Amino acid sequence: MKKMIIMAILVAVFSITPHSVCAQGRMMEGNVPEVEILGHFEKAAPTLAERLGQIKGITSVYVSKAMMGLAGGMGAGIPKGMTGKLEKIHIFSAEEDGKSKELRGTAEKFMKENNYEVVMEVTDEGGDYMCIRMKELRKDCREYVLLTVGDDGETSVIILTGNISEKDLEGLNM
Prior knowledge:
globular
């Protein structure tokens, strides 16, 4: 009888676990989540973060929603009103010229192929470049990609995912 109760509890817990949590867990383990298409499971197309994470020799940082809650309380440049809206942040950077070009090229190619909308683009006289692109992933979730290239060649890509708007980005100090 105890085995049946334990088994029932385990089945109940796993059946109420949101699919997105399971998919996120598989992604954190380095696996691409599977998508059910007409009763068949197929690998989902890699995300921009997964694609950039495959580049060797660059720096990458992942910040979870839980960590952002802590960081927002410590004044880490994330406005308090925005911490509840963000699901995750990925940061990629490269200083070496060849890796910087690879990071920028991979990001720009992916965003072009996947129809990211240009929200803002700035190039100054000194050679600095900054672009913000956006894609709606679902009704309540957007992905913003901030691509910066310094005149020294250093390239950074910051991916913000969550229920955020352009107005929310105005107060971001990253």
